[in-house]
Design brief:
By secondary structure, the chain is an alpha+beta fold. The protein has two domains: 2-88, 3-Layer(bab) Sandwich (Phage tail protein beta-alpha-beta fold), CATH 3.55.50; 125-195 and 205-216. The chain is 19% helix and 39% strand. The protein contains five helices and twelve strands. It has helices at residues 21-32, 56-60, 123-129, 151-162, 185-192, and strands at 2-5, 11-20, 36-38, 46-55, 66-74, 81-88, 133-138, 141-150, 166-168, 175-183, 196-203, 208-216. The protein has a six-stranded mixed sheet with strand order 3-6-5-11-12-9. Strands 1-2-4 form a three-stranded antiparallel sheet. Strands 7-8-10 form a three-stranded antiparallel sheet. A hairpin with a 5-residue loop joins strand 1 (2-5) and strand 2. The chain is elongated.
Length: 227
């Protein structure tokens, strides 16, 4: 017996007694309209479990020893949207980063030459501090200091620091004037614009998240009233 509610958030109840994990995964995929991929050992495994009204991630962790979820976060929406679920075996490797997140276009940031490997000192450090755009990524947390900078430039700099592709679809220029200190990427993009789509992977077994791609979506043009 499987019950799945998707509003206001995903909520799952399951009672299974020696049911095939593959059957549970099939029903879950059908209800959520999301592909669910199983590890080889999970294909014929029998599952006995009972839980009620759990949110998506705690529920999935009861179904397999290693679980990944690929998400799309639309900064204009409240909740992240799952794109794919992976119920993997304990010794199975991570699915390819492009398994559910595809993109054929990538924008690039081109900057002037810098002295790689040299720590800034004295006046150089002060000059660096005064730069109109500074982005650092440490311990999976972002710090962004932007003084009247174009949003595409800020996103490209974030992508460069995190080592992920950035796609700029919106050609209009919005200006960012903000200072954000040590936040996860999903919180940062929500503060920057309601028109950003962030794709990320959650590794539920290791309680880890990895950004996969940033897209600055093209804004819908407002329709002009008839004269």
């Amino acid at each position: 017996m499987l019950t799945v509610k998707t509003q206001p958030i995903i909520n799952i109840s399951l009672k299974a007694e020696k049911a095939r994990v593959s059957q549970v995964a099939h029903e879950l995929s059908k209800r959520l309209k999301v592909p669910v991929q199983l590890g080889k050992e999970r294909q014929n495994e029998l599952l006995t479990v009972e839980f009620s009204e759990l949110t998506l991630e705690p529920a999935l962790q009861l179904l397999a020893p290693q679980v990944y979820v690929d998400y799309e976060i639309d900064t204009g929406a409240l909740m992240p949207k799952p794109l794919a679920i992976y119920l993997f075996d304990a010794d199975q490797g991570e699915p390819p980063l492009s398994a559910a997140v595809h993109g054929s276009v990538q924008s690039m940031l081109i900057e002037g030459d810098t002295e790689d490997g040299a720590e800034p000192q004295g006046d150089e450090a002060k000059k660096l501090e005064e730069q109109p755009l500074r982005v650092t990524f440490e311990n999976n947390l972002l710090t962004v200091k932007a003084k009247k900078q174009p949003l595409p430039l800020v996103l490209l700099k974030i992508g460069e620091e995190m080592g992920i592709p950035v796609e700029i679809q919106d050609t209009t220029v919005s200006i960012v004037d903000t200072e954000i200190s040590k936040l996860p990427i999903e919180d940062v993009v929500r503060q920057l614009s309601p028109h950003i789509r962030l794709f990320l992977r959650a590794d539920l077994t290791r309680a880890d998240k990895r950004a996969l791609r940033i897209v600055l979506s093209e804004q819908a043009q407002a329709t002009q009233p008839n004269p």
